[in-house]
Write a structure and sequence with these properties.
alpha+beta; six-stranded mixed sheet; about 160 residues; 6 strands; 2 domains
Length: about 160
């Protein structure tokens, strides 16, 4: 019998599942590589706020990817004070992730403090550790405004 042999169906299903897992793995590798390239682009576009590089971007990524990217940005900014705020929206909720380098934290700027005003703007709150914080809210339409205010917020926190 040919491909329609019911006795071979379990084996065909196992092969199909193995192929799906292989393709998902390859897709994961490609996405990781693409995010790595995006990190360089984001760093190149960092804004200088009183001598502190600030990366701010809205991305089409899930919150887990934003966290991973924010940490990679923080790692790349380790030479001095620096911060990154990445955001996404799914249409019903806005999510923001902030990271700060240790030298910036030493100057009194923490990730939750950096996100506090932006979180209010999108209708939520911010929380986390000094180096990494999350915020979210139910007003995703206000995300652009929330991100636009981050430079001023960082300047205020720096005392300027």
């Amino acid at each position: 019998m040919g491909a329609a042999d019911p006795k071979r169906a379990p084996e065909r299903a196992r092969r199909a599942m193995a192929r799906i897992k292989e393709l998902e793995s390859q897709l994961g590798v490609l996405r990781t590589r693409q995010r790595g390239e995006r990190i360089g682009e984001l760093l190149a576009g960092a804004e200088d706020v009183a001598g502190v590089p600030l990366v701010v971007a809205e991305l089409d990524e899930d919150p887990g990817a934003l966290r991973e990217m924010a940490l990679k940005l923080r790692d790349r900014l380790q030479g001095g004070p620096g911060a990154a705020v990445l955001a996404t929206s799914d249409g019903s909720k806005a999510t923001l992730v902030a990271s700060c380098t240790p030298p910036l934290i030493e100057r009194g700027v923490t990730a939750p403090a950096l996100l506090a005003e932006a979180a209010k703007a999108v209708g939520g709150g911010a929380g986390g550790k000094d180096h990494l914080a999350f915020a979210g809210g139910g007003r995703p339409a206000a995300l652009a405004q929330a991100l636009a205010g981050l430079s001023a917020r960082l300047a205020d926190l720096l005392g300027g």
